[in-house]
Write a structure and sequence with these properties.
Elements: H1 8-16, E1 18-24, E2 29-34, H2 44-51, H3 64-80, E3 84-88, E4 99-107, E5 111-119, H4 126-131, E6 135-139, E7 145-148, H5 150-156, H6 160-163, E8 172-174, H7 183-186, E9 193-198, E10 204-215, E11 221-230, H8 232-251, E12 253-258, E13 263-266, H9 268-274, H10 278-281, H11 296-307, E14 312-319, E15 325-336, E16 342-351, H12 353-371, H13 374-422, E17 435-441, E18 449-456, E19 461-469, H14 473-493, H15 499-513, E20 524-533, E21 538-544, E22 548-552, E23 555-559, E24 566-567, E25 579-582, E26 588-592, E27 600-601, E28 606-607, H16 610-619, H17 625-640, E29 649-655
Antiparallel strand pairs: 1-2, 1-5, 3-4, 4-5, 6-7, 6-11, 8-9, 9-10, 10-11, 12-13, 12-16, 14-15, 15-16, 17-29, 18-19, 19-20, 20-21, 20-24, 21-25, 22-23, 22-26, 26-29, 27-28
Helix pairs in contact: 12-13, 13-14, 14-15
Length: about 650
C-alpha cells in the first residue's frame, strides 16, 4: 500500500476504521495502535509508513481548517483531565473522504490518548438545510458554533471564520425583560424563547429560538441544532398595534371575553361606565350587564352571528352596578382558532345614552303630535326641530371631542419622537464607556428627566449629565428640550468643559430664555455633571442640588451638589463648586434624579428614600453594570406594587 505523506492518517483509517494514537500536549505523535494491537498488527510496508508518523504533529494530516480544532481538544484534555470528543463531518469538510469521530482522554506520563474512527452517521444534510427560510446553527457540547446555514450568515452579516467556534451566547442574548424559559439551556423543541441577535455590524435583530439535542442510533451526542427565526418586523408591528390599542382605550369602552362570555379584559373606560372595579368584573360573565330591554331572541341572534366567526354591530342597552341603564353602540369581533372555533370575543363600544334619550324624547313628542289638536301641530313640530337640532349639536360636539382627543394623542406621540431624536442615543455611549447602564422610566409618554453626554476628541473629555426638569409629561418635555439644546450650545459650541462653569452658563441662559428677571416664571432644572478627563487622568463633578455617588478602591463618596437649581429664584452671585477625583481604573460613578428615591410604595405607602437607594447601590456594586440595572429595576417594581408612578425616574451608572 503506497500512501501520500499528507494522507497517512486518513489512509490508515480507511484500512483499519479505528486507530489509537498517543500524543503529548503539543499534539506530537508518540505511538500508533490499530484496533487489534500495536504496530505489529500492520504489514511490514504499513509498519514502515506508520512508524514514520511518530514525532510528527497529528494536525498536519488533516485539512488546514481542522488543525486548530484538534490542537484545542488536545490542549483542553491535557489541562482539564476530562474526556472530550469532536466529529469532523465529511459533508461540511469536503476534503475528507468520510466522516471522522475523535475522542480524547488524559493518560499518564503527560500524554493524551486519541481514538480516531470512521463515523458513518452523517447528521447534517447541508443541501437541504441551506434552502430552508429560517436561520440554523449546530453547536457542540460547549455551546460553540460548528456550522451555520447561509440564511444565518446573510441575516447576521458574520463571515464563516468569525462564527465557527464562537460561543453562541456571545451573539444571542436572552430578553430579560420577558419572563421566559431559556431554550438554549433547556433544549426542548417545544420551548420558544425571545433573544436579541447581535449581528457582526452591532445591529440587533429580535429572534425566536428553539433548540434540541441530536443523538445517533447509539444515543451518543452529535450536536445541538438551533432554529432561529427573525421576528423583528413582527415585533415592530406589535408595538404599532399597541399604540393603536392605546388610542382606542382613551376614547372607547373596550372589553374582551372568553368563548363562554366570561370577562378577561376591561379598560378604564369600561370600569368608569359600569361602576365596577377591574377586580370585581374580571372572571364574571358579561350577563351581569344585561338589562331587560332586549328579548332572548336578540341575544340568540347575536351569539349565532359571532360564534360563526362574523362581526356583529348594533346598539345594546346595559345596566351598571348602581342599577342605572346606559346605551352603547357595540362592535363585537370574534377570534377563531385553527379549528375555526371562537376562543375570544373583543367588544368595542361607544356610549350613546344621550343620543338614545334624545331619540326617546323625539319619539315621545312625535306620538304626542297624533293626539294633539291641529292648532298645536305647528308648535309641537317646532319643538321637535329644536330637539333634533340639539341632538345634532350633541353628536357634533361628541365628534369634535373625539377628534381633539386623537389630535392631542398624536401630538404627544409626535413630541415623544422629537424628544427621542434630540436626546443622545444610548447606543453611542459604549464607545467611550463600555461598562454602564441607564435606568430610564418616564412617568408619561414624554419625560422631564433626560440624560446627556458628549465626547470631545481633542481634549479627551467625556461629559455626562443627569437632568431633572420642572414637572413631567409635556411641560417637563419642553423644559428637557430647552435643557438639551443649551447643553449642546454650552459644551459643543462654546467648548466649556469645567462642570461648575457649565452649570453657571446654563443658569444664566435659562434665566434669559424664560425671562425670569422680569416675569414670575420659576421653571428650571436640577442636574449633576461628571467630566472624565482621560488625558489628565482626572474626574470632575459639579451639581445643582443633585449629588453624585462615587466608589473608588472600596471607599464610598457621597458628594452633594450646591444648594441651588438651574433657573427659578436664585442668587446669581453664587458660584457652583467643582469637586476633583483621581482617575482610578474600576471607579464606579452613579448619577440620578429624585424620581427613584421619591417613589411611594412598600407596606406603608412611604417614599423609597435616598438612604435606601445609596445602600442598594453599595450592596450590589460587585455586580456587573447590566446586573446592577436589573436589581434596581426589580427592586423598584417590587417596592412600587400597585402604587402609581409619581415622577420620571432616571438612574445612570458607569465604571472606568
Amino acid at each position: 500500500m503506497i500512501m501520500s505523506e499528507k494522507n497517512k492518517i486518513i489512509d490508515l483509517l480507511n484500512l483499519k476504521e479505528q486507530i489509537f494514537i498517543k500524543v503529548n500536549r503539543e499534539s506530537i505523535i508518540q505511538h500508533v495502535f490499530s484496533d487489534e494491537g500495536k504496530l505489529s498488527s500492520f504489514s511490514k510496508s504499513e509498519f514502515k509508513n506508520f512508524k514514520e508518523l511518530i514525532g510528527t504533529s497529528l494536525g498536519e494530516y488533516f485539512p488546514i481548517e481542522l488543525q486548530s480544532y484538534i490542537t484545542e481538544v488536545v490542549f483542553k484534555t491535557f489541562h482539564s483531565h476530562t474526556i472530550a470528543s469532536l466529529t469532523f463531518n465529511q459533508i461540511l469538510h469536503t476534503e475528507l473522504p468520510f466522516s471522522i469521530k475523535m475522542q480524547a482522554m488524559p493518560l499518564e506520563n503527560s500524554q493524551v490518548g486519541i481514538w480516531l474512527s470512521v463515523y458513518k452517521e452523517d447528521y447534517i444534510s447541508t443541501p437541504f438545510y441551506e434552502k430552508i427560510p429560517v436561520m440554523l446553527l449546530y453547536l457542540n457540547q460547549e455551546e460553540e458554533v460548528i456550522w451555520a446555514n447561509k440564511q444565518f450568515y446573510r441575516k447576521s452579516k458574520f463571515d464563516a471564520d468569525q462564527l465557527v467556534t464562537e460561543h453562541v451566547r456571545e451573539f444571542l442574548k436572552i430578553n430579560l425583560k420577558i419572563s421566559q424559559r431559556d431554550a438554549l439551556k433547556i433544549k426542548d423543541s417545544s420551548i420558544r424563547t425571545e433573544y436579541k441577535l447581535i449581528c457582526a455590524d452591532k445591529s440587533e435583530l429580535i429572534v425566536i429560538v428553539s433548540a434540541v439535542n441530536q443523538y445517533d442510533e447509539e444515543e451518543n451526542f452529535l450536536c445541538t441544532s438551533v432554529v432561529v427565526r427573525d421576528v423583528t418586523q413582527m415585533k415592530l408591528t406589535q408595538i404599532e398595534l399597541e399604540y393603536q390599542k392605546l388610542a382606542i382605550d382613551e376614547s372607547a369602552i373596550v372589553a374582551a371575553t372568553d368563548a363562554k362570555g366570561n370577562i378577561i379584559y376591561a379598560n378604564d373606560k369600561f370600569c368608569e361606565i359600569t361602576k365596577y372595579s377591574r377586580e370585581e368584573v374580571l372572571g364574571q360573565n358579561h350577563r351581569i350587564l344585561k338589562s331587560k330591554h332586549h328579548s332572548d331572541a336578540f341575544f340568540t341572534n347575536m351569539w349565532k352571528i359571532i360564534s360563526s366567526g362574523k362581526v356583529w354591530q348594533g346598539e345594546i342597552c346595559n345596566i351598571n352596578k348602581d342599577g342605572n341603564i346606559y346605551w352603547v353602540y357595540t362592535t363585537i369581533i370574534p377570534y377563531m382558532d385553527e379549528k375555526n372555533r371562537p376562543y375570544r370575543y373583543q367588544a368595542i363600544r361607544f356610549e350613546i345614552t344621550k343620543r338614545k334619550e334624545l331619540e326617546t324624547e323625539i319619539v315621545h313628542y312625535t306620538k304626542g303630535l297624533e293626539r294633539l289638536v291641529k292648532d298645536r301641530t305647528q308648535e309641537l313640530h317646532q319643538k321637535t326641530e329644536l330637539l333634533e337640532e340639539s341632538y345634532a349639536k350633541s353628536i357634533e360636539q361628541n365628534e369634535k371631542l373625539h377628534s381633539k382627543n386623537r389630535y392631542i394623542q398624536k401630538s404627544i406621540n409626535y413630541a415623544k419622537r422629537i424628544q427621542d431624536s434630540i436626546l443622545p442615543s444610548e447606543d453611542i455611549l459604549p464607545i467611550y464607556l463600555q461598562k454602564h447602564f441607564i435606568l430610564f422610566k418616564p412617568k408619561d409618554i414624554v419625560s422631564g428627566d433626560f440624560y446627556w453626554w458628549h465626547h470631545n476628541k481633542e481634549s479627551g473629555c467625556t461629559i455626562i449629565s443627569a437632568i431633572d426638569c420642572t414637572g413631567h409629561g409635556v411641560p417637563g418635555a419642553f423644559m428637557s428640550m430647552i435643557g438639551s439644546t443649551l447643553l449642546d450650545e454650552t459644551v459643543k459650541t462654546k467648548n466649556i468643559s469645567n462642570p461648575a462653569h457649565i452649570l453657571k452658563e446654563m443658569q444664566e441662559q435659562i434665566a434669559d430664555i424664560l425671562q425670569q428677571n422680569i416675569t414670575n416664571n420659576r421653571d428650571g432644572m436640577d442636574m449633576n455633571i461628571i467630566v472624565l478627563n482621560q488625558k489628565k487622568r482626572k474626574i470632575y463633578f459639579a451639581g445643582a442640588k443633585n449629588p453624585v455617588f462615587l466608589i473608588q478602591n472600596g471607599k464610598e463618596y457621597w458628594v452633594k451638589g450646591d444648594r441651588m437649581s438651574i433657573g427659578g429664584k436664585q442668587l446669581f452671585s453664587r458660584e457652583f463648586t467643582t469637586h476633583e477625583f483621581d482617575w482610578i481604573e474600576g471607579t464606579q460613578i452613579y448619577l440620578f434624579s429624585d424620581g427613584y428615591q421619591d417613589q411611594f410604595g412598600g407596606h406603608n405607602g412611604q417614599k423609597f428614600m435616598r438612604k435606601n437607594l445609596k445602600e442598594l447601590i453599595s450592596k450590589n456594586r460587585h455586580l456587573s453594570m447590566v446586573k446592577q440595572k436589573e436589581v434596581l429595576a426589580e427592586t423598584l417594581e417590587k417596592w412600587q406594587g400597585n402604587y402609581n408612578q409619581i415622577d420620571d425616574i432616571l438612574v445612570m451608572g458607569f465604571e472606568l
